[in-house]
UniProtKB/TrEMBL annotation:
This is ABC transporter permease. Pfam families: FtsX, MacB_PCD. It comes from the Bacteria. It is a multi-pass membrane protein. Belongs to the ABC-4 integral membrane protein family. LolC/E subfamily. Residues 23-232 form the MacB-like periplasmic core domain. Residues 263-386 form the ABC3 transporter permease C-terminal domain. InterPro entries: ABC3_permease_C (IPR003838), Lipoprotein-release_system (IPR051447), MacB_PCD (IPR025857).
Amino acid sequence: MIKYLLFRYLRFDKSQPFIALCSILAFVGVSIGLMVLIIAMGIMNGFDKEFERKLFAMNYPITVISAYRGGISDEFVSKLQNEFSELKMSPYISTQAVLKSGDKMEGALVFGVDFESEKAVNSVLAKALEQSGIPQGFEMIVGKGLSDEFSLILGEKITGIFMEASPAGLGINPLLKRFAVRGEFSSGLIAYDRGYAFSTADALRRILNTQGWDGVHIYSAQPRRDIEAIKAVLPPGYRALGWWEQNGNFFSALELEKRALFIVLMLIILVASLNIISSLLMTVMNRRSEIALLLALGASKREIKNSFFAQGLVIGGGGIICGLILGLFGVWLLGSFDIISLPADVYGSSKLPMELGLWDLVFTLLGAVIIVAASSYYPAKKAANVDVLSTLRNE
């Protein structure tokens, strides 16, 4: 009975073409809505993951810092490394400086590191060191943004003006030191490419007249778990920071934007599902006499209800399947070919990042199914409640 009524009412009726048109519009609307939603979620998730990977490298998964400059000794670093032998660590010195080349000046955060240890925890710097080699003495690796701003040539000298001052005569002069540019790195994020520079730890120690380290960069594949273990062994005066703690507001904003986009685009499917309601209601109104006759001949209200409910599910479900196929194809197409080009200095990548999460896809499909099912339920219930006596008497 259900299958017979389903195919009967889904066929094109020449006397009522508008009903078929509403069904087609509902199918197309659900398909396009779901396709747009899947592609949009793939783009948003792709940007999230792309920024996360870049910030993961340049901000480091875990950073241990001391309350005092130079407060971390080599013995402390060795003890920490022995305690967590599975983690990669790189101690560092950092200071604010103004880098000057010609008439141009830019502020930068200068790190003094052991490059052999640093390249194990910083994939961006490791890639740059493969091309330039390890800096020695007063040599520096600068970001590509800074290099482009100064129009630097490898081997060219730049001047570092450090915030620490030195007495001279009757006044105080800032510390100045010239560095040779050994190479450049590119993180894809202009804030780091114009604001970070790396030199040797010995060079910064001589300039700043300090000993020890300011902190330890730590690479961990599971930093949220390992940071708790590290915090448990740190003595007073030391702190462990995760990269997500330093960029919490940024990712909270991305997550909020992603949820808002999901809700807005889900409304497209909701609007398209209104055509399911209208087409089913028109079918019910047009077939009232048939429905009443079937009920009079012994068909149960449940069978009538399930027949129209199934009709709505076929229209909406077909749209969901079609939209899913088109959406996944769109994600693959945009992710595999450079169809859309982006300014790398703004978005961190010239290629449109596409990465559709499994749970994003599951929640998208679940939301579409719920909307389609809810849209099919009311007309089906209306069909089952047709007044048999009144309909047969008057129609």
